[in-house]
Amino acid sequence: MAAVSISLAFAVDPLKPSQPTKFGFSSSSHRYPLLYSCRSHRSNLRFAFPPSPSPVSTATETGGEATKSTGSYAFLEESFRTGRFLSNEELEKLKTLEGFAYFQELESGSMCVRVMRSDEMDSTVHLLAESFGESMLLPSGYQSVLRFLVKQYLIERREVLPHAVTLVGFFRKKTDGYSDGDEAEMAGTVEVCLDKRGANASPPSPTPPKESPYICNMTVKEDLRRRGIGWHLLKASEELISQISPSKDVYLHCRMVDEAPFSMYKKAGYEVVKTDNVLVLLMLQRRKHLMRKKLPPCTSLSDAVDIMRSDNELSSSANA
């Protein structure tokens, strides 16, 4: 995936640093850019990270359980500060987001994915801006401008909770066979638009249905790539959508030139539903696939465990 279109006169492709890229920022307001889909990189994940919710159940590479947990972060307080009136349904969704956590233990470490907290915004901004700057081959002097644009976008998107959410993943390396050696670090991030109210006003082409969940802005820290982290950011996004969205048709974009991410999405069950017309090249944009996956209904914990085991097998095959 990759691309973003912003109201400024430049384009970038946060996926392949080795190629000239373009990405479209798009936002629910035209004042700020939206980063729409950064390349996903594979990596290994787990938990035991910055104050995260305590798990109710867990998924491990050897076949554990799927994970969710209850947390204590004040998402409700933050939302009320926006001055919005929240319906009972929105309050229930906020509680689900507050308690959401996805855990995974792999060979090289462990990872936890959960909703970004306000005090983690600067770290997330840095991660995204670094990824986009690298792909655009921008001089270091432009990083401050890029960080400003990304931060304005994240602030704006945070105001539409619980209709869209930014997830962050923390990775802890294994030491002597255990994942408790080094301090956990932010390894990646991904955005999930859950419904029409959380959809971007100017999404990239081909345009996904606004009422359906949409995954975008996925990126992984450079020195942690190719370990499966991107795969599990994707799986965490799907897990959250299964819990909170009535629609099970999930969409994402992938540039035609990005063979590795395309292969990963195909292995995860996504199919191409539409591809950009060649005329987009005249707009200095890369052609993209719009891909869709229908999530299976998860009716029990055992079903979730079976799905997680299947995901682990696919992840291992992708990392081989």
Automatic annotation (TrEMBL):
Stored InterPro entries: Acyl_CoA_acyltransferase, GCN5-like_dom, GNAT_dom
SUPFAM superfamilies with a match to the protein in the record: Acyl-CoA N-acyltransferases (Nat)
Top-level taxon of origin: Eukaryota
Any one GO molecular-function label of the UniProt entry: acyltransferase activity, transferring groups other than amino-acyl groups
Domain N-acetyltransferase: 111-296
PANTHER family recorded: ACYL-COA N-ACYLTRANSFERASES (NAT) SUPERFAMILY PROTEIN (PTHR47489), GCN5-RELATED N-ACETYLTRANSFERASE 5, CHLOROPLASTIC (PTHR47489:SF2)
This protein's name: N-acetyltransferase domain-containing protein
